[in-house]
Known about the structure:
The structure is a single chain. The chain is about 15% helix and about 40% strand. The protein is mainly beta. It has a domain at about 35-85. It has a 7-stranded mixed beta sheet. A hairpin with a 3-residue loop joins strand 5 (about 60-65) and strand 6 (about 70).
Amino acid sequence: MFAFFDLMSSVDNIDWTEMEGKEARGIDDADLGEVQEIRDDFVVTKVGVVDKKVYKIPKSLVEGYDGHNLLFKVTKDDAKSKYEIDI
């Protein structure tokens, strides 16, 4: 039987060129939007249609990739207070 983490790519094995357009999720399945851009040290995500929020989250907080979602070690509240940027 496989554990969840056996199916998840570690940060070292993530192909960053394929992450744009993937969903971003945080702790407790927090919706951090869709990956818009990958930079050297951070990931830019955008969530919402009318009330859009943009987050610039450090790559150091990436926990892994499960094949559908880029997973971050950050809560929704922390993303909002520490990593939300004005657009």
